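Quick illustration, no need to memorize.
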Amino acid sequence: MTLSQRNRYFAAGIVLSSICLLGILFHISKLLPFYPELSAAAVKRVSGLFQRIAAYFFTAAPLAPFVTAAASVAYTLAVSFLIYFFFEKTQSPEILFFGLFTFSFVFEILRFMLPVKALYNLSSVFLILGARILFFGRFFGVLSFFASSLYAAGFNLQKQGTVVIAIAIAALIVSLGIPIDGFSWDTNFVMISGYAVILRLAEIGILFISVTSFFVAAYTRGSREYLVVGLGAFLVFAGRDLLINADTWLTPVPGFVMLCAGTWFISAKLHQVYLWL
């Protein structure tokens, strides 16, 4: 994949996230009044270790899903722009797939489907469709990050476009196979789905392998920079979990800080590794 082709992915992230943020700003006054009622109608709290702990001390904050979804889209815009600017002429397969991971955060805008449905009185079919696209984006992001770690550890398939297509197909198959309840949602405004425990365990497994792969790269390549990248990978995944699964005000801020810190560690060190190549 040429640099110009790769940079189109980053440019697409900038354009799409900008459009999404403008859409959020345009509808903010119309959507916010629906959040308290929709939050009260949620059938369950968000799953996750930190979220379960937070649930013991805090009730669900109705506006937390709005803030975290908007912050996720803003994260995509900021990181896509920075990657495009700093890596425009730097060939790095890891940064391509890490960029696709950051691009996946723009799909969190699909959590606005519930208030949008209430505003425009849409069919529940749109909620199921939106949930599938959301799950596709999340799986696509995790698998993209996994691919980035494999390239760091020595995986050297030159046809990176083929890998992107394979990741997209795998994410599509998983998202289409998940049973989704079109009438129930959790306090994070995500539709209730099946196989939640299995999918979460798979995500944790991918996290472990990804972080390990970056540490393996530090050993095989003799580059200490990848130790920092591995630390950044852990912070990114932990921050992502705290941010996108937050239904209180306890976890979004530390989650966003960890996400940004991990992103900086990864981007800065990968730029340092490839700067002299």
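The mean pLDDT is 91.
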